[in-house]
Amino acid sequence: MSQVSYDVNEMPKPGLLLGLSFQHLFAMFGSTVLVPILVGIDPSVALLSSGLGTLAHLSVTKYKIPAYMGSSFAYIAAMQLLMKTDGIAAVAQGAITGGLVYLIVALIVRSIGNAWIDKILPPIVVGPIVMVIGLSLASTAVSDVMNKNGHYNLLYLIIGLVTLLSVIFFNIYGKGIIGIIPILLGLIVGYVFAIIAGAVTGQEIVNFSQVASANWLSIPSISLPFISYGFKLYPSAILTMAPIAFVTMTEHFGHIMVLNSLTDRDYFKDPGLDHTLTGDGLAQIIAGFIGAPPVTSYGENIGVMALNKIFSVYVIAGAAVVAVLLSFIGKISALIQSIPTPVIGGISVALFGVIASSGLKILIEAKVDMDKKKNLLIASVILVSGIGGLMLEVAGLQISGVAFSTLLGIILYQILPDR
Fold first, then answer.
1. How far apart are CA 314 and CA 318, in angstroms?
2. Residue 50: how many CA atoms within 13 Å on its side-chain side?
3. More confident residue, 286 or 72
4. Which of 64, 122, 151, 164 has a 20 to 30 Å separation from 264 between CA atoms?
5. pLDDT > 90: what percent of the chain?
C-alpha cells in the first residue's frame, strides 16, 4: 500500500491540510463539548479554549510536539460541585490554579534536569501505561457503539460497525489522500448511513433540530473571573482543583510517551519536560481566564496520528484555528454535535485500540524480557489496575485509572529486585 506521511515539521498542501485538520477536530469534538455539557458551561467556550490552548502549547513547545488540547474529564466532579456552590467564577479560579501548579512543577523540573525520567519510566513501565491509556477507554467506545440510552440497540451496533469498517477500509486500501484521512471519510460514511438507517427503520438516529434552531453567528459565553464577577478568592475552588493537576500530569507523561514512540523522538529532552508542562499549564490558565473547563492533551488526537502516520504540527495548529472559528459559528457547531454516538464509538474503537497497540510496540522494540518475574509482575499490575479503574481516594482527592496504575508501576520498578 502506498500511503503519504508527514513528519512533525512538514506541511501538507492547503487543501489537504484543511481536511486533515477537520479530521482531528471531529476526533476531539465529542469529548471536548461533553465536559462542559455535564458541568453546565457553554460548549462553544470549551471549543474556543481548546483551540487557544493548543496554539499556546504549540508555541511554548517551539512547534515540536503535535499535541491537541481538549477539555479534561479529571476535573468534572470538582467542577460540578463548585458550579452548585460558588458558580463559574470558582471553576475558573480553580482552573487557573491548576495551571499554576503545572508552571511550578515545570520550574522544579528545569532546575533539577531530566535525568530522573529514564530511571523511573523504563520501557517495562511505559509500555503497559500506554496500553492502559487506550484500553481504559475501551468500555466507553464499545458502549457508544451498541447502547442507546443505556440499553442494547442492534441498529446502533450496525451503524458503529459500518463506521469502524469504513475507517479500516480507507486506511488499508486508500491511495494518496484517501489513505491519510480515513477517520474523516469513515465518519462521513457512518453519518450518512445513520441518516439512511434512521429513515428506513423509523428510528431517530440523527437529530437536526438543534442545527435548524442554531444561529449562524454565535458569540461564546466567555466569563472573565476577575472582571465579570469582581475580585474574590474562592479557597474551596483552589483546594479542590489544584491537587487534581497532579493527576492530569501523570496522564500528560503518558501521552508524551506515546508521542515519543510514534514520532521516534524524545520530547522529555527536546524541547524538554519543563516546556511540555509549561505548555499544558498555560493552556489551563487560558481556559480559566475565559471561563472554560481545564484542558489537557487528548488521546483521541494521538490515536488519529497513530493511525494515519501524519504528525505535522501544522495540521494540529490548523485544527486549533478551525476550533476557534467554529466556536463563533453556531450552525456548524450544532451540525458536528448532531453526529450520533455509534458513529463516534466506531471511530473510537479504532483510535483507542491503536494507542493500546503502540504500548505493545514499545515493549517489543525495547526487547523487554517477559520471562523475568519483575517485568511480568509490573506489567500485570499496571494493566489490571489501570484497565479495571483501581482508585485511591484520600480527603476527597481521587487518583484512579491511568494515574494510579502509573504510580504503582513506578513504585514496583524501584522496589522489586532485578533477580
1. 6
2. 37
3. 286
4. 164
5. 37
Q: Tell me the pTM.
A: 0.77
Is the Cα torsion angle 190, 193, 197, 198 positive or negative in sign?
Answer: positive
- Under the banding of pLDDT at 50, 70 and 90, the label for residue 1 is very low
Rounded to whole angstroms, the Cα distance separating 8 from 148 reads: 39
Range of the domain at 340: 14-415
Are residues 177 and 16 in contact, defined by beta-carbon separation less than 8 angstroms?
Answer: yes
Domain count within the chain: 1
Write out the three cell numbers for 198: 434512521
Would 139 be classed as within a structural domain? yes
Which helix (H) or strand (E) segment holds residue 249: the answer is helix 244-263
b/e 194-228 (16+ beta carbons within 10 angstroms → b): beebbeeeeeebbeeeebeebeeebebebbebeee
CB 356 within 8 A of CB 349: no
End-to-end CA distance of the chain: 45
CB 68 within 8 A of CB 279: no
Q: Provide the pLDDT for residue 50.
A: 95
Residue 4 belongs to some domain of the structure: no
- Inside any domain, residue 374: yes
Q: State how far the Cα of 419 lies from the Cα of 415, in Å rounded to an integer.
A: 12
Domain membership of residue 235 (yes or no) is yes
